[in-house]
Amino acid sequence: MTAAGLESAAPGAKIRLFNSLGRQVTDFHPATPGQVRMYSCGPTVYSDPHLGNMRAYVFSDTLRRMLEWKGFAITQVVNITDVGHAVGDGDEGEDKVEVAARAEQRSVREVTDHYTAMFMADMEALNVLRAHEYPRASDYVPKMIDFAVKLDAGGHTYQIASGLYFDTTTSPGYGRLALIPQEGQQAGKRVSADEKRSPADFAIWRADPVGQRRIMRWDSPWGPGVPGWHLECSVMSIDLLGPHFDIHTGGVDHRELHHVNEIAQSEAFLDDGHDWVRLWMHNEFLLSGGAKLSKSAGRMPTIRDLAAAGVPPLAFRYFLLTAHYASQLELTDDGLEAAVSALRRLRGRAERLPPVPAAATLAGARGLVSAAGAVKLEQIDAAASEDLNTPRVLAEVQAALRDPVLPDNDKAVLVAVAGQLLGLRLADPPEEPAPAGRVVDEAAVEELVQAREQARKARDWAEADRLRDELAVIGVAVADTPEGPRWSLA
Ligand code: AMP
Ligand code: ZN
What we know:
binds adenosine monophosphate; four-stranded parallel sheet; disordered N terminus; binds zinc ion; alpha/beta; 3 domains; Rossmann fold; four-stranded antiparallel sheet
C-alpha cells in the first residue's frame, strides 16, 4: 500500500514521537511507507529480569501496539545478551553470565537458558507481543568478527593488550545522542601501548586476560576472547533489519553509553554519511525509594514476586502505563494497589457491556462506532499518537465509560480498543491467581514443594523452576533454607 493509500484509509492523528537524538518531538515517518522496523535492546540473561527491566519491554511493546493499531506492519527484533556484557558495563572484568554460572554452580548454557525462559515467561504474563526475532549474541560471534574486521580495515580501531578498541576520534559527531560536547572528546594521544588512547574508546574485542582463559571464548584476528558488549546490537540489528531501520529503543541508561557506542561503530561500518537510525526512544527508570531499580544492587522484585503478593502481571502493566514512558516512576504499594483496583473496575465495567466484533486497527474500530463514539475514538487516537501518552489514553477511556449518553456499544468498542492498544486484555481477562489471604490446599502445596525439591536434587532446573512458577500462581512462595524448602503464603 502506498503512503497516500495508507493515509486515506486511516488518516487519524499525526504520530509524533520524542527523539532522543536531537531531544525533540518530531513527526514520525518510517523509511518505507506503511512498514516499521524496530530494534529493542533486550535482556542480559544472568539473573531474574526485575520490574525495572519490565518497564523497558512494556514501553517498546506499547509503542509497537500503537503503530500496529495505526495500520503499520511492524518487524521487531529483541536481542538476548548471553555473552560479552562485563560486570560494571565497562570493558574490563568478568562476563556477568560467567559470574552467575559460578555462583549458581551451573554451566553457562544452563544459566542463559534458564534466564531466557524466565524473560519469555514474564513477557507472556505481561502480554508483550512476541518479537519477530530473538537473536542470541553467542550465535552471532562470527558475524561480529567480520564486522570488526571491516572497522579495523577502515582505520577505526587499534589493538592493545586487552583487545581491539574503537577509536572514537574517527567517529564524526561521537556522543551526540548523549549530548557529549565534541570539544570534550580527547584527541587520540598515545598514552602507552597498553592503555586506551581516550577514555571514551570502547572494546570491540576483549582478549582473554593475560594468563587467564574465559569460559566462553572464540578465536579472532586479535587473539582468543569475546566481543565487546556494544558490538552485538549493531551486528544483529543490521543483519536482521537492514543497514538503516526506523526505531531503536532501550532504557534511558543506554542513551548515555551503549547506544552512543552502537551508533559510532555502525556509522563507521556503513560509512555512507547517513544517520544509522533516525529515531531513538528511551524509557525513563522505574525507581524504588528514589533510586533506579537495578540488578547490580542485589535481588530485585520480579513479576512473580508481585503475582505472589496479589498484584497480577497485567495490573503491574496498568501501573506502568499510568505514567508517561519518559517520566520517572516510583514503585509504591499505594500505586500498585490503585492499579489493581482500577484494572478490576475497568474489567468489571467491560463485563457488563455488550459483546462487539474485534477490531485490530483504528480504521477497523471506526466502522464499529456511532458518530459520538467516533469523537471519543479520535480523542484516544490523539492521546496515543502524541508521543504515546498512555495516562491520557486511560483517562479518555475512563471518561468515555462514565459518559451517561454514550451508547453501550460504543463503550464496548472503546474498551476493546484500549485493551488492544495498551495490551491490558480488558475485554478478555486472563485467569489470575486468587488474592492472598485465602485458604490453600496444604496437601497439594506440600506435594508441589516436594516435587520441586526432588527436581532440584536431580539438578533438573527447568522442572524446578516450572514448579516454583506453578506455586507462585497459587500465591505460594518457597524459600530454600539449609533445613530444606519452606513455603509461605505470599
Ligand atoms: P539489562 O538486562 O540490564 O541489559 O536491561 C534490560 C533493559 O531494562 C534495558 O533497556 C535497560 O535500560 C532497562 N532497565 C534497567 N533498569 C531499569 C529501570 N530501573 N527502569 C527502567 N528500565 C530499566
Ligand atoms: Zn543493545
